[in-house]
Design goal:
By secondary structure, this protein is mainly α. The chain contains 21 helices and 2 strands. It has a two-stranded antiparallel ribbon. Strand 1 and strand 2 form a beta hairpin. Helix 5 packs antiparallel against helix 6 and helix 6 runs antiparallel to helix 7.
Length: about 400
Amino acid sequence: MGRVDRPKGLLKSSKVSSKVIPFIQDSDYYFQKSSYYHQKNKLSKALLFLKKAIELEPENALHHYNLACLLSKTNRLKEANRIFKHIVLNLDPSLTECYFLMAINYGMMEDLPKAKRYLLQYLQLSPEGQMADEAQELLFAMDEGDEEAVVFNPDLTMQENEALEEALSTLSESQFRELFGSDKGFRQALQRALYQGSDSLKERIIRLYGRLHHDEAYACLKNYVINPWVKERLRQVALLELKNMAPLGRCRIFAGGVIKEIDLSSYPLLAPVWREEWQIVLECTYNNMRNNPHYGEEFFADVEAIWLDYINHAYPHVPRIVKPQAWSAGLEYCLARFHFLDVTQKELSRSYGVSAASVGQKYKLINQALHIEQKAYRNMLTFLAHQERERD
């Protein structure tokens, strides 16, 4: 009988069914699904499948370990540390890496005494462990010279922060250089502010260190980029200054969860050499934003990220900056569009003293490079979808 003469339905027989292998969704299946979505950077699905794997195999320490690592990646640090602690206390004490990762998470939560305690505990239990060198480097960075007192001091008060910012803004470069070289108390105040001040003050100090070309300032920046608890955007600014100070130098940085040595001449930074005119645009934007009480600290971080991202995309063909105020107005309008703020080009043109047309032109250039509006709407849709899930 030919193929066309065969019935279209499936022929059922005991022989056929006896060869069917049942599909079992065990913990390994869910773990593999989690790994797949993790590689695709779909972290919510990766978490879902990993939790299913743990439900089926609650005593599997590696499943718990991977869950804690994934929670750390999604910034759920307290939850991650609870799981790391559960692993070493109740499931598998030999997974001493949990102590190192707890230390990193506590550092990210700005609880540096606990971070130091767990680094020491990790080294005590695993002096030859895979992360032992990193743990020793971190402890060294925390204890460098007199820096332990600096690191564990509370944040600068608002008055201290403002006083230091005002003092730095009134010093000429030569005055700053002279004071840095002669006054140990001034150097200690800068070092404390580098870790405990506002982000704008930290960045100002990093820039000033870069202009000094002083051995101690260079050493301070090298210690800064190795610290896992500084913000990544500030680490990038410090790396730019290090590269300007010693283009062919080498340094150790914290990246991807580990400390590694890099060659500054070939390391990809946000912009190869930072120009004074780019900084002027950023400072002008900051100054105007400070007059608006609705801008919190996170907005200053975002506007800097947008500007650095634009420079990186446009380099080396960055348009010539003739009037910084026009670029600053266009940059702030990008920030407003990204966050759906009720700010118009006309309002910005008045506050910056430029034409509305020039604001629109600069915004258009930045938006063409970065697709600000597309990213804003995508973020808004993600936020709304999250809100909908929360309601359900």
